[in-house]
Amino acid sequence: MSAMMKPSGEPSIRHSLEQPQTGPTALRIVLGAQLRRLRQERGISREDAGNAIRGSHAKITRLERGQVGFKERDLSDLLTLYRVLDQAERADYFALAQRANAPGWWHQYNDVLEDWFELHVGLEEAASLIRTYEVQFLPGLLQTEAYAHAVHRLGYPNAPARKIDRLVELRMARQKLLTRPNAPRLWAVVDEAVLRRPFGGPEVMRAQLEKLLDVVKMPNVTLQVAPFSVGAAAAGSPITILRFSDPALPDKVYLEHLTNAVYLDKPDEIDQYTLIMDRLCAEADTPEETSRFVRTLLDQLA
């Protein structure tokens, strides 16, 4: 049996520690899931676990969902309660908690980064595959700076220029993950209306279309356009599915709204949205057809 796996066949804490691209957000979720598994295996209620760390069942829920960091004393008490007494195993948990508590690079944007979006940025950083479908805007990972300015100005019409600038800086910083070593694969499907809608005016859109033609040459980027005739596009709202190389971290579906977001990770939910995404990819124009369409739109703007 692999040393990376527990007798139950589930990935061990040690395995998660050895994943080089797994950032603090993902590690918090992994650690929380491991603690939830331990609690359930021992038949301990959230209330009793909360009492053990001088807290409530709500605090245990937040810890198990990876929504908050871990204090060393709380983690020690929980491991003792769950009968994890081997010093080497406990050391792995503490090492994972230390990494999970470390601030991500995006924390420098806390002045404009919403809590509900911070989780997405952290998960995006850890993903090995990002599949996304957009119906109104181009994916943030593919936007030019000028296009991003136009989009943010639309979403925050009364915001000061400084806030818009900071939001655009954050979006440009996120794009660096596509060119880093061991970069994730981005597979994007966009509704035809996205490419026809001239955000920022003709000059901004021309530069944006030119960028798309450059970006799709990258080996880890696939772009498809869903024509108006595609029936699967009736999904109607943006969808992002994130997959991770760490088997301890389940796929996540991210559904963004104007002022909040929903994160789904139940198997039946993942299956449902994966089916929708698969249909979109199958019915949308191929990457080659998409590139020709982008060139046609560019000629129309000339």
TrEMBL record:
Domain named HTH cro/C1-type: residues: 35-88
A family per Pfam: HTH_31
Gene3D superfamilies attached to this UniProt entry: lambda repressor-like DNA-binding domains
SUPFAM superfamilies: lambda repressor-like DNA-binding domains
GO molecular function, one term: DNA binding
PROSITE patterns: HTH_CROC1 (PS50943)
InterPro entries with a match to the protein in the record: Cro/C1-type_HTH (IPR001387), DUF5753 (IPR043917), Lambda_DNA-bd_dom_sf (IPR010982)
Spans annotated as Disordered: 1-20
Identification of the protein by name: Helix-turn-helix domain-containing protein
Organism: Streptomyces himalayensis subsp. himalayensis
